[in-house]
Amino acid sequence: MKALPLFLLAQLCSASLVPEREKDPEYWRGQAQETLRDALRLQRLNQNVAKNLILFLGDGMGVSTVTAARILKGQLQNRKGEESLLEMDKFPYVALAKTYNTNAQVPDSAGTATAYLCGVKANEGTVGVSAGVTRDRCNTTKGQEVTSILRWAKDAGKAVGIVTTTRVTHATPSAAYAHSANRDWYSDGEMPPDALEGGCKDIARQLVENIPDIEVILGGGRKYMFPKNASDVEYPHEDKHRGTRLDRRDLIQAWHDVKPPGKVAKYVWHRRDLLALNLSRVDFLLGESQHPRGGMWAAKGGRKGGDGGGRGCKAGKGRAMEGDGGRGGRWRAVLGTAGGRIDHGHHEGKAKQALHEAVELDRAIGLAARLTSPQDTLSVVTADHSHVFTFGGYTPRGNPIFGLAPMQSDVDRKPFTSILYGNGPGYKIVAGERENVSAVDFAHADYQAQSAVPLRQETHGGEDVAVFARGPMAHLLHGVHEQNYIPHAMAYAACIGSNRAHCNNAAAAARPAPATVLLPFLALLFLLC
Predict the structure, then answer these.
(1) Catalytic residues
(2) Is 384 among the annotated ligand-binding positions?
(3) Which residues contact 154 (CB under 8 A, 6 or more apart)?
(4) What is the tens place of the pLDDT at every residue in 243-261?
(5) Is CATH 3.40.720.10 the right assignment for the domain spanning 46-293+309-388+462-501?
(6) Is 502 known as a binding-site position?
(7) Taking the model in full, what pTM does it have?
(8) Domain residue ranges of the chain, discontinuous segments joined by +
(9) Which of 58, 187, 357, 387 has its CA 20 to 30 A from that of 339?
(10) What pLDDT digit, counting tens, does each position of 72-124 carry?
(11) CA distance linking residue 367 with residue 383, whole number of Å
């Protein structure tokens, strides 16, 4: 049994694994000194008023996912990977957020969204309401509604937007505008009779009615906006994409109807329509594909044309910044973008999908960093929760992140992949034994990594998540915080919400801003994520 560790030690120490420059101690000393100089510069705190706020939310992007995505990013660039930097890694301030819900040690995306958007911890399965609301009980909702940072920004005259790779009525974005005792009440067709009779509104209706002047909404889930059995514009012959609304309302038309006279509101359902818009002449933009789950991935980890959701998320990189805000000056806005399919990939045990999604989200973060200034834009990157995802096995430097560990199990004498899950659909027994991964294509995008416990869907993890911050007042995000602290710190930086006394002399904070320069920026993020 001693031969295995000795072999592994020899492999880890092999000179071929170590880049030549890293053999020189001066390389590491120089790197550390450069990092020290950067840290010393942070002593000059950026206390400007944040004219713009950007929140990037990687749904399910726990610390292990961030690390694995960093390695993947480097390996996609033909590097070893471990030494790479994600765009979020370049943010100077990092904190940890405690993710538990008020009634759950391991949280769900609804209760966490209420925390990091509304500043209040809540019960699992509920959105935009306090912990006084019990899941599924409509009659506990009244008087327990809590508002989000998006509402605070609107009240301060800012332009706001939501961009997501999930349906826009999903738990993650819906806490920005909705108040619901159940995260799954997407339309009235998903609500029980007692909730309808009790006067509770479905989430899609709240999207249109609660904050009707959201400048940008981009995501999936359009079937919840149309009457029951109405044919889908893109998939007219597929029953699963038909409308779901029992009230027979067309919420897209309702969205148009509430816009002020003289304002230009555009609805798009396909990527080509979005690319065709002159965004500098649009005041309000609603883009809804079908629910972007499924059919999105090709065998090498790239996206397929898919089922409508993917069509809004692929290309057109330079196009969206056309126009320079002809309707008025620099944008002052609050916007949120969600990489929701990281979570979907993990739930399905498909680590390749989850990690590629994390890399795509990071591209959007980098784009935003290039298009904004840390002098007036506070950018925050975080996750709602983690997953029971891990990678290990004493892999050598540069080991393919989706590859095998360099050793076999000393129990069943079979190989195993570095990436594993604590539970999930990857649990497979063949002839009474653990499946031999060398007999399957573990590099395939749809490969489900092995798990310790069999479940149809892998679960969330309960550990803290990272919070990365850059820009005005970013230093307020430090140490270990309750997750609901995040929007309070962001609001303080932008002089919105309840903490505005320090902004009395900051005249710029009170001026409302046009949305027209926000529109192309948000559209570009959507095309990239």
Answers:
(1) 109
(2) yes
(3) 160, 211, 213, 214
(4) 999 999 999 999 999 999 9
(5) yes
(6) no
(7) 0.89
(8) 46-293+309-388+462-501, 404-453
(9) 187
(10) 999 999 999 999 999 999 999 999 999 999 999 999 999 999 999 999 999 99
(11) 19
